Amino acid sequence: MVNQVQRGDGSWQSCKSDSSGASNSSESSKESSRSSTPVLDVDRSDRLRDKMRRRMESGDRWFSLEFFPPRTASGAVNLISRFDRMGTGGPLFIDITWHPAGDPGSDKETSSLMIASTAVNYCGLESILHLTCCNQTKEKISGYLAKAKHLGLKNIMALRGDPVGADWEEEEGGFNYATDLVKHIRSEFDDYFDICVAGYPTGHPEAESYEEDLRHLKEKVDAGADFIITQLFFRADTFLKFLDDCRAIGITCPILPGIFPIQGYQSLRQLVKLSKLEVPEEITRVIEPIKDNDAAIRNYGIKQAVEMCRVLLDSGKVPGLHFYTLNREVATMEVLRQLGLWIEDPRRPLPWAVSAHPKRKVEDVRPIFWASRPKSYIYRTQDWDEFPNGRWGNSSSPAFGELNDYYLFYLKSKSSKDALLKMWGDELMSEESVYEVFTCYITAQPNRSGHKVMCLPWNDEPLAPETNLLKDELEKVNRRGVLTINSQPNINGKPSTDPIAGWGPAGGYVFQKAYLEFFTSSENVNALLKVLKKYEPRVNYHIVNVHGRNLTNAPDMQPNAVTWGIFPGREIVQPTVVDPDSFMYWKDEAFALWIEQWAKLYEDESPSRMIIKYIHDNYFLVNLVDNDFPLESCLWKVIDDMFELLDATPEPKD
Amino acid sequence: MVNQVQRGDGSWQSCKSDSSGASNSSESSKESSRSSTPVLDVDRSDRLRDKMRRRMESGDRWFSLEFFPPRTASGAVNLISRFDRMGTGGPLFIDITWHPAGDPGSDKETSSLMIASTAVNYCGLESILHLTCCNQTKEKISGYLAKAKHLGLKNIMALRGDPVGADWEEEEGGFNYATDLVKHIRSEFDDYFDICVAGYPTGHPEAESYEEDLRHLKEKVDAGADFIITQLFFRADTFLKFLDDCRAIGITCPILPGIFPIQGYQSLRQLVKLSKLEVPEEITRVIEPIKDNDAAIRNYGIKQAVEMCRVLLDSGKVPGLHFYTLNREVATMEVLRQLGLWIEDPRRPLPWAVSAHPKRKVEDVRPIFWASRPKSYIYRTQDWDEFPNGRWGNSSSPAFGELNDYYLFYLKSKSSKDALLKMWGDELMSEESVYEVFTCYITAQPNRSGHKVMCLPWNDEPLAPETNLLKDELEKVNRRGVLTINSQPNINGKPSTDPIAGWGPAGGYVFQKAYLEFFTSSENVNALLKVLKKYEPRVNYHIVNVHGRNLTNAPDMQPNAVTWGIFPGREIVQPTVVDPDSFMYWKDEAFALWIEQWAKLYEDESPSRMIIKYIHDNYFLVNLVDNDFPLESCLWKVIDDMFELLDATPEPKD
Fold first, then answer.
1. For residue B13, what is the nearest residue in chain A, using CA coordinates?
2. E strand or H helix at B6, and its extent?
3. Residue A400 and residue B511: Cβ atoms within 8 Å?
4. Among the four residues A88, A202, A205, A326, which has the most C-beta atoms within 10 Å?
């Protein structure tokens, strides 16, 4: 029996052996843990060197971005935001440098380890953690590596680092060279990590000779490194010669050039001092005359980098470009745009931000409630061993961790307290003041003190494009005290490439049930419940207050699919559900945000604070789903009917 | 925190304790085995007494059917077909009687155990196995029970049975009464089985008195029985009095009346002799005059049963009716129809026939290939420990058992060898003769010897209604040697109540990708492959021959969803897939059926046999999926293009 499968393009691949029809009855028991279908994105399951290999085979170029750890907490918040923004351009990986003086392996928010971990877990980026080894014990290094692995990091750049002190002595049994570190990683962790090492296109400054340094590089690779990233250089042919020389001595792994767009006169001088590189004459000739003109230097730097990269790419020997960003965005993005490598129109593999922790690689379904707070969701589920795939399932829904620190670092609002007071009102007069804030957020119109409301406690960004489609209806209801914090329109089979609603591979169709989630008063809820009786079973609802009193008509408390997609050659993907159990965990967070982010802006016992507290204590959180997705959403009519009923009913006397 | 959830109808139910938002971090690890969502049919997971309880609460009446084991193998085949037919009417359960003389616990196809097991596994019917205990050792009884449990049976009717010999002595430590059996079952198997016991509305013939027999019945129930089914009776008030008397002495479980529609004069006399019941005068008065007129007696029997059942149902104390069918259909179905209890328009919970084995209760996805051979699929997967739920998944697809006995009893064709020869041709002239047979099957037109082709080796029934929609296109292609054995049209969101394509709960929408599966010559396949290049990636294909040589463009060999449904308040259901791995198991069966069911009708070495063998050895089995389900299926055009290419190409010279 032929075990090979011929692909449609004529190439053959081996089949799995039992698909040739073997039916040994001793193997007929189904394994108890089925792999999920790796549905949408091979990149989620492949390791970095395999992602590279696939791209090299298909000729798709890539880029990567290097960052250094920040010095301050707010610097870290900004850097994470930068990761989110630059992540949309489609880097194959990013890397984070390691500096012993900065406590790089600690739990501080600014450490290399925490920054790299955040990039993986919260920004969904494949990340390499640099690691220097000189002056470190093997135990210490193993400790860092174990911690990195636990946090979800899978790639290490193994470096010697700068020895402490002007002279340096080789230590017996210590790490003397990066090669020792590479060997150590392979010995302790087998093939778990992808390992990358540094190459120096003009030789390491401390090497005896260029040839010696090449031999040293080969040693590092032979010890178990998967690829090389080089120091920066100023001429394409500097790198290309180095590349040829590497190949000539038998280094076969990918070699990625390090690109540094010149960003300023002083920064170039500083760089030259540190790297001991020479700036070629053709560059100094241009820069010297304009050394006081930062903008001109930046433009030149971009132009020079683009030209050099084009030569590198055209050589056919350079599969990817590695950028030293110095934690800045503009120049790097501009170079990549001009090279056509920056993805302008990123397609989402799923409607929500994917985490890159290996244990989450098959995760493909989440409750909709955290749509605007994906980092919170990742945080609260970080202790799970397994993640839902295919279906959300039911009764064994696990507990969510507490969001026990509302100062959880990366979930802090990007806005200062002053900015928030301006947006949300430094003095609230009544509940209607709060309604106005929501309305201004929805409409993007300035509030009564002339400030735009750019965020709310539940949404740190302005309205998403998809939600913007519902702007008019949302405005109407918010004005009257239906304070919406999450919604989606119904969608009946739009192409998966739709710029607003699309996700997943091309050639598919995406669907949604209409969804609305809002805070509202208990008076409104009483009327709503009467109205909802007429809409059963078309509308599913769940209504809860901060004390946990809740009502739902979810059949058997089962999760309800609200987003799904059909793709060629794939099983169905159902990435969001409305789950009654999870809603009870979400509500804790949703109610607490009133206090933690809004009430606490005001003085204790102030009227403003009491107003927010009143809402927190007395309002209900409601979610509504319109199951009849091919029809126009009836949820707005449900709200209309509720208001009609309220308007018709005289005020109760209690 | 309030732990109760108020349902939309105002009733309260307890929430699962951790859904009130508890977030004890020591419980934050997700359990490794998630329950699936019990999506569509609570009946699949509830035990029988709970199904009854739900119906009694909602006031929905039910009926059940009793059968006796057949004496011959062909009687068994007929009985299984009867189960399939009568199963569509919606019995809550069926039961199978036990007769020690008939080897009822053996592996013979005619045994009570095997018949009951087949009803559960292959016909998807909740089934009760009768079990008599007198003259049996405890070991023997435990053996039967263990075997029943293993086979998937969950309900036992515990009976004493008829002691051997005219006199009967109580055995020390043996089973003297049904009560002993009930106790034994509870003691050995705890609460695994639902247990039912017999009641006698006029008292057991051997009881000392009616009151004594009532006390005895209470003893049986107190020993652990869940409900009672009664002996037949001729007057409604006989049963209703008995019911009141049972309640009066404290029997609270459901008591179901046994109904016997009189079917013939002799059968009534025989019954009276066995049961020692008296036929009331008002019945004999009618029957005697017409005792030679079977039709008249049957009509009277139906009328009498309907009237009696109406009185029983109107009493409000009778939740369900139990029918002694004597293995016949017509009278019972007519009575049930007149009572409005027979489901005329059965809704399918899933597009394929569900098995009732408890280990299969969450099974909700299968490969499409066995659509016409669900019993074969159940047989070949009977050793699996777990069944796919939600997604089919991939690489850990388990092996399928061999269909190692093409004489597998219940998969035998219902048609005799002679009938098959008439349909498929007692002499085949060429491959075109075979094409004609397929064409006649599709069109339901008689073949050239005037016989209708009612089945094919892969389809023991005529075309399903859904396939009938495609009749014209199917005819065209079969004529030219594209021998179709499975197909479905594309469906883009029909209501789940659609009479032809619908399945699952009401209020939902069902979808399908167009699918076509056929045998065809290798010449055709060569042309087809060229044509298919133009249709990538819209069309997925898999092409295989009997030797296992196969070609597919399935991305990463992943399963492709071809049927799915969206329902209110539920996660997505995706009940059929086209799976490349399973196709390789299916093809063994599909190719073998040429030989086992068709070729072997002819003499060894005869030209007819050689023709079938030639097809078996040289044709390919092809499956095609059109991924673009919102558009009209392109698969017919694919076939057209293939023929166009063939017609345009001169014959090759080999």
1. A551
2. strand B4-7
3. no
4. A202
Indicate if A281 belongs to the active site: no
Q: Write out the two tokens for B199.
A: 């009641």
ipTM for the predicted complex comes to 0.86
- DSSP secondary structure code for residue B165 in this structure: S
pLDDT in tens, B455-468: 999 998 888 888 88
Query: What single-letter amino acid sits at B358?
Result: P
Q: Encode pLDDT of A22-68 as tens digits.
A: 333 333 333 333 445 545 677 888 999 999 999 999 999 999 999 99
Smallest Cβ distance to B551: which of A5, A569, A585? Answer: A5
B contacts of A22 (beta carbons < 8 Å): 399
> Do the strands B12-14 and B4-7 form a parallel or antiparallel pair, or are they unpaired?
antiparallel
Structure tokens at B53: 């309880």
Cα nearest neighbour of A13 on chain B = B551
Alpha carbon separation from A481 to A434, A474, A486, A523, A642 (Å, rounded)? 8, 11, 15, 11, 12
If we measure between CA atoms, which residue out of A652, A616, A243, A325 comes closest to residue A457?
A: A616
pLDDT given for residue B468 in this prediction: 87
Tokens of A456: 């709310």
Q: Are A167 and A135 in contact (CB under 8 A)?
A: no
Tokens of B509: 């929408």
Helix (H, G, I), strand (E, B) or coil at A561: strand
C-alpha–C-alpha distance, residues A118 and B632, integer Å: 47
- Name which of B2, B6, B28, B490 to mutate to probe chain A: the one with the most chain A Cβ atoms within 10 A of its Cβ: B28
The answer to whether B18 contacts A630, with C-beta atoms less than 8 Å apart, is no
From the CB of residue A279, how many other CB atoms can be counted at a distance below 10 Å? 15
Mean local confidence (pLDDT), B533-540: 96
| Nearest chain B CA: its distance from A527 CA (Å) | 13
Report pLDDT digits (tens) over B255-314.
Answer: 999 999 998 888 888 888 888 898 999 998 999 999 899 899 999 999 999 999 999 999
Region at B316 (left for phi over 0; alpha for psi -120 to 50; beta for the rest):
left
Asked if A28 lies within 8 A of B3 by C-beta distance, the reply is no
Tell me whether residue B2 is exposed, middle or buried, using C-beta atoms within 10 angstroms of its C-beta: 0 to 12, 13 to 18, 19 or more.
middle
CB contact under 8 A, A555 and B568: yes
Provide the CA A197 distance to its chain's centre, in angstroms. Answer: 25
Burial of A45 (0-12, 13-18, 19+ CB in 10 A): middle
Contact B564 A572 (CB under 8 A): yes
Residue with tokens 């003086």: A101
Q: Rounded mean pLDDT of B321-337?
A: 96
Q: How far apart are CA A267 and CA B574, in angstroms?
A: 59
**CA-CA distance, B382 to B269, in Å (whole number)?**
44
Residue B589's contacts (CB-CB under 8 Å, 6 or more residues apart) are B373, B376, B380, B403
Mean pLDDT, chain B, integer: 89
pLDDT at A4: 41
* Two tokens, residue A580: 């009654």
Q: What is the pLDDT of residue A209?
A: 95
Write out pLDDT tens, residues B11-68: 444 333 333 333 333 333 333 334 455 456 778 889 999 999 999 999 999 999 999 9
Q: Which helix (H) or strand (E) holds B576?
A: strand B573-578
Judge if the upstream peptide bond of residue B537 is cis by omega within 30 degrees of 0.
yes
Residues A123/A84, Cβ–Cβ less than 8 Å: yes
d(CA B94, CA B92): 7
Nearest Cα residue to A83 out of A130, A44, A121: A121
Give the 3-state secondary structure percentages of chain A, helix then strand then coil, rounded to 5. 40, 15, 45
Chain A contacts of B544, Cβ < 8 Å?
none
Residue A16 clears pLDDT 70, i.e. is over it: no
CA distance B214 to B246: 7
* Closest C-alpha among B49, B40, B126 to residue B83: B126
R_g of chain B, CA atoms, integer Å: 28
